[in-house]
């Protein structure tokens, strides 16, 4: 633990002082002399530190050599999408994200310039930042509404961070509750802090639920958020819905998704109303980052990797949709405009190049990052209702979405919960239809492999889908949903600094099985 926390021992101040932010609504430049006690002692000071944490969720700040594929939340979503079957990276390009796509990063655990360290460091940075603020729970000065708002956001950030650690450094929740996950810290840490052992998956999820429920409670009694990058109660409900879906707690997932829809005030939008997915002011956006031109991280950014027209990484390593997934949309589905079947980057044996994510200004590389849309909540409500046998309710929530996507889509005849052994095995069930729409609607926004894991399905890649031969994962156990391909290794630096962990017994398997 010590080596990682040497990087973040400055506490939240390190995040808060990331360069280049001049947005008055998202001020992130406290003084060097801010102490941890100062952060937790006053809500006005704590909100500045929170702003710094939010800035780090879209800024490129990986500590060593990995910045061009480490730009906060979107980089991990892109990583997890490329680990599945629906998003194709058509070529290696400069190499960024290619090794995620090929599952060739686990053995790089000794390096601080690769994915194991990058993710572990990132989420524990946010955990510690939240802990710095939460140390003031019960003593923080300020109006009751502001204190509740600040603490509620910090609890949500900690819940989100542990959820992502659990998603990436352990097997999925259901059926693996007693397996090792990650250490739990609920107090601020520094280089002298004694490292903790790995908690079980169940213990980590217990902490996640405690934090997110406390967040919902406090945010319901707090002041209104001042910036869409801040987590409000609707976003906390959205995170609870995501967490419960992974835990297969269908009732909680349904209730949380409905609460997220109701409290957000957001509505499902037609595709042309949020074209490019680059504007957090769209009526369906629950949470995201408004990024001005002077805050753009240019090459080290999501749009650099997605928008072909920028002439950056996306031009040499185009992101494409699988032909199989594209074929699940009828000709009348408005989302077909998100992919270009005639793009110059396409070949007869490739997928279709994406047009879903476009920079709002190719000269300045501008474009907001969208982290949660209300459409996802309708899909969660539909899936949870279907799982509970409430098919009429599931039909309604699916109809809410498809009414803005494809009016010809057959809903009323769909029934059942059967899923195939792999994602290519078709059953025709209602649940499969809901998952299909989730795959299409959230392509590039959620992280496909996390769904594959929780659904306990295997997957295959084929050249007929449009995958390049080098990325077919031939001989790898992708059809086995219990494999360890999807479980990241713990960085060596954690073992070097944490005497409570033994690399011989606590390291995740280096192989696939």
UniProtKB/TrEMBL annotation:
Keyword line: Cell outer membrane, Membrane, Signal
Pfam families (UniProt xref): SusD-like_3, SusD_RagB
InterPro entries: SusD-like_N (IPR033985), SusD_RagB_dom (IPR012944), TPR-like_helical_dom_sf (IPR011990)
Domain SusD-like N-terminal: 103-245
Gene3D superfamilies linked: 1.25.40.390
Primary location group: membrane
GO cellular component: a single term: cell outer membrane
Ranges of residues in domain RagB/SusD: 336-509
Cell location: Cell outer membrane
Family: Belongs to the SusD family.
Protein name per Swiss-Prot or TrEMBL: RagB/SusD domain-containing protein
